[in-house]
Design a protein that fits this description.
By secondary structure, the chain is of the alpha+beta class. It has a single domain, classed as 2-Layer Sandwich (Alpha-Beta Plaits). The strands form two sheets. Strands 1-2-6-3 form a four-stranded antiparallel sheet. A two-stranded antiparallel ribbon has the order 4-5. The longest helix is centred in the middle third of the chain and has 12 residues. About 15% of the residues are buried.
């Protein structure tokens, strides 16, 4: 089981995640592969002092990549989409405000 600070790996900022933030207030994070929805909810609430209303997770398959003459594979990872209580934002991550 990952610790509180290992649960959230990094925020994911793409055009799609930025649009989801602006339209529906959803934040997207890369999380530890063994993290469960309650673990993710607890980590977000404690790290950013907000109230989470929903957590959606999906396992992403690593892409096959060529590395020189041999083929390799990027690691599999887990994505979490988090919705906060109405009117709350994660102020410490200015990158979502973009």
């Amino acid at each position: 089981m990952p610790t509180l600070y290992e649960t959230i790996v990094r925020p994911i900022v793409t055009e799609q995640s930025s649009a989801a933030y602006q339209e529906r207030g959803e934040y997207t994070f890369q999380v530890h592969r063994d993290a469960t929805k309650p673990d993710i909810r607890q980590a977000i609430e404690k790290l950013f002092a907000v109230h989470v209303t929903g957590v959606w997770t999906s396992n992403q398959r690593g892409k096959a990549k060529r590395m020189g003459q041999s083929a390799g594979r990027k690691a599999h990872w887990k994505k979490a989409v988090v919705t906060l209580r109405e009117g709350e934002t994660i102020d410490t991550i200015d990158i979502f405000e973009g």
